[in-house]
Amino acid sequence: MESPLKKIKDWYLSLPIDHRVDIGVIIGMSCPGFGDLCISTETDLIPEKFIISIDEALSHPITEVGMVLLLREAIPFYFISKRDDQRSWKENKVMMQELADKHDSNTFQRSANSMDFRAKQWASTCEKWKNISDYLTNDYLNRYSMPSRN
User: Fold this and answer.
1) According to the model, what pLDDT value does residue 150 have?
2) What is the pTM of this model?
3) Least C-beta-crowded within 10 Å: which of 44, 45, 149, 150?
4) Which parts of the chain fold into alpha helices (H)?
5) How far apart, in whole angstroms, are the C-alpha atoms of residue 47 and residue 33?
6) Which residues lie closer than 8 Å to 84 by C-beta, 6 or more apart?
């Protein structure tokens, strides 16, 4: 059987760097097991520290399954459920455009201009997450963690 945590690791490593940073810092601040990650962690180090925590959990099937249980709930809660909704991206784009027009702001205009691209990137990230969901079910984890799996 394939390692479910390795599937999550591969998913994470396949993401754009800004997604890896977002995920790393939010998970690192909100979940146990990511002790070296916090708001003051240098941005460049966040993905590396996130992977170090995953690699440590890969050392034993019990900790691996525990980490999978944590991440399979935390990642959808903080990211997938919020960034997979194309309607909210469109609403944010309209809001940014209104702010750009109202305040004659290049910053708001750049944000509005980038919304479509960001929405497509997050849609891809969310789709990739859904593609590994079969490896994150209770049934799969039970079979994976059985001593006779080898």
Assistant:
1) 47
2) 0.87
3) 150
4) 4-13, 17-30, 46-57, 61-75, 81-83, 86-103, 106-131, 138-145
5) 15
6) 122, 123, 126
